[in-house]
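Hey, I was hoping to borrow your eyes for a little while. I've dropped the whole record in just underneath, so have a look:

——
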Amino acid sequence: MKAEYFLFNLFVIAGPLIMSFEKRIFFFSKWRYALPAVALVAAPFILWDALVTGRHWQFNSAYTFDFRFAGLPVEEWLFFFTVPFAALFVWEVIASYLPDRKSAAAQWFWILLLLCPLPGIVAIMHGKEYTALVLIFLGLAATLDYLFYLAATVGMNLICNSYLTARPVVLYEERYQLGMRLGTIPLEDFGYGFALISLTVILYERFKLRAHA
């Protein structure tokens, strides 16, 4: 069904929109921080997507509308807004129910992320462009000194990417990757999703701090 990817985006955003008015979280009051954070992070990722579509991956026309802008289906543009927005909602839920997110294990994980650009350099020297770009973006996210709650990120990656790769909505060219998958999901997709979400959370929290400074 050609509307399937579009309906997926609606499904992702529906819950966070409806639950934004829940009394304990009241995410609606934070939309003024969330929306610019999502838009600013979406810009470089959409550019990245547009530059490599047709090389690193392509979109299955059986599940997307025919209209393309900058080589991307409109559903892919929506993805960079619906998924990060939903992730920020999950972040606020976690903040409400699990306020302590800085465990010793999390700090060690953050240190490992800082080292990601080093294997990224090695990967790009061997022609693994997607792998390299993901590692560099992960390093950037860690350098900006913020750590997203790991379990939530992995969970969202599993849900979203399992759908996109199992149908498949997105078709990958493995010569630009390591060729390693968890189920149907390329290993690099977990890093891609982590970078997208964590960079959005970084800006979101910065905007909130400035507003209350």
Notes: The first strand starts at residue 57 and ends at 59. DSSP finds eight helices and six strands in the chain. Helices lie at 4-19, 31-52, 74-97, 104-114, 117-125, 129-143, 150-166, 187-212.
